[in-house]
Specification:
This protein is α+β, with helices and mostly antiparallel strands. The chain has 13 helices and 13 strands. β8 and β9 form a beta hairpin. α5 packs antiparallel against α6. The radius of gyration is 40 Å and the shape is elongated. This is RND transporter hydrophobe/amphiphile efflux-1 (HAE1) family. It comes from Klebsiella pneumoniae. It holds the Pfam family ACR_tran.
């Protein structure tokens, strides 16, 4: 068996049958009837109870196995005809054959065929197994008799390769569109950051999958294709928020942390309860000088500010977070 093959299922195999054929004229000459032949076969092909053995754990029943397991046993079945004992082979023909008509039959290009289903082992490379099966198929076809051939009907490795190609095409198209939009609207520096965020995120995903012993299969690939839009969208939102904070006078170390503000404020959808993102935001927000100059409001005072002001907290660059109340025009009014 090839490496990577777990098992091989055979589909379309016809069931074997034992056929008994006889001549009614010959049976009439011997003074036999078909019922007598069937009765002789039934009397031999039985399980006979021979007693039981009493043990401490229960009874063990003993049975004499008289069931037929070879074709010659059927042929040697004794038949009594006219005071003589004959063998079944003397009055009938016993032969092995296949079920006719077949209850289940597979055809390939109009011809009867058997279907071999190769099951791959868990965690094996499907593309490598596909190449090994192609080489083994060519080797088997050289040794098959005339009129028989082994043909590949479906190949999962082709579907895997097509899925990988589809993902790569969508990946590069999405990356190109995002880079073009960022270059035109926000400059080349933003485009480089967005372009680097997507492959770096995918690289981290592959590292985590390898560390947790997760397989890279079609289901995982489909999930990455669905998540590709989220990766691009997240990169644009984060870098756009950072640019807005920089334009408002916030320094880069703090603006890097504040770029996660939309995710923290999301109440439903994709980012509920993401504590890791908030931790990353806090680390970036208090980077360098912010560690000494920023402080956290008391929980009770913070709740009172929210109730009185009806707004959110807006961390000031180089200062403590304070409660802000929205003024007219939609812009927050900061109170120190």
């Amino acid at each position: 068996m090839l490496p990577g093959v777990k098992k091989v299922n055979i589909l379309g195999e016809q069931a074997e049958r034992i056929y008994l054929s006889f001549s009614h004229d010959r049976l009439a000459t011997l003074g036999l009837s078909p019922e007598a032949i069937f009765a002789a076969l039934n009397s031999q092909n039985v399980l006979t109870a021979a007693g039981a053995i009493e043990t401490r754990g229960g009874q063990i029943f003993i049975r004499l196995d008289g069931a037929f397991d070879r074709l010659q046993q059927i042929r040697d079945t004794p038949i009594i005809a006219g005071g003589r004992t004959l063998k079944l082979a003397d009055v009938a023909t016993v032969e092995r054959g296949y079920e006719d008509p077949a209850t289940f039959l597979i055809r390939h290009q109009g011809e009867p065929a058997l279907l071999l289903g190769v099951v791959m082992r868990e965690g094996w490379n499907g593309l490598a197994l596909g190449k090994a099966l192609d080489a083994e198929t060519a080797s088997i076809n050289q040794n098959l008799p005339l009129g028989m051939s082994l043909t590949k009907v479906t190949d999962q490795s082709v579907n895997i390769s097509a899925a990988v190609d589809e993902f790569m095409i969508k990946f590069f198209v999405a990356l190109l569109v995002v880079m073009t939009v960022c270059f035109v609207s926000m400059g080349w520096r933003v485009g480089v950051v967005v372009a680097a965020a997507v492959p770096l995120t995918l690289a981290v995903v592959f590292v985590v999958m390898a560390a947790t012993d997760k397989n890279f299969d079609r289901i995982t690939l489909g999930s990455l294709i669905l998540a590709l839009g989220l990766l691009v969208d997240d990169a644009i939102i984060a870098i756009e928020m950072m640019v807005v904070k920089n334009g408002g006078g916030v320094r880069p170390p703090q603006s890097l942390g504040l770029c996660l503000e939309p995710y923290r404020r999301a109440h439903a959808g994709r980012y509920p309860g993401d504590g890791r993102g908030l931790y990353a935001q806090w680390i970036c927000a208090v980077h360098r000088r912010g560690v000494r100059q920023q402080c956290v409001l008391d929980r009770r005072y913070r709740a009172d500010c929210l109730l009185d002001c009806g707004g959110d907290f807006y961390p000031l660059a180089g200062g403590a977070p304070v409660a802000g109340q929205k003024a007219r025009g939609g812009r927050p009014r900061r109170a120190v």
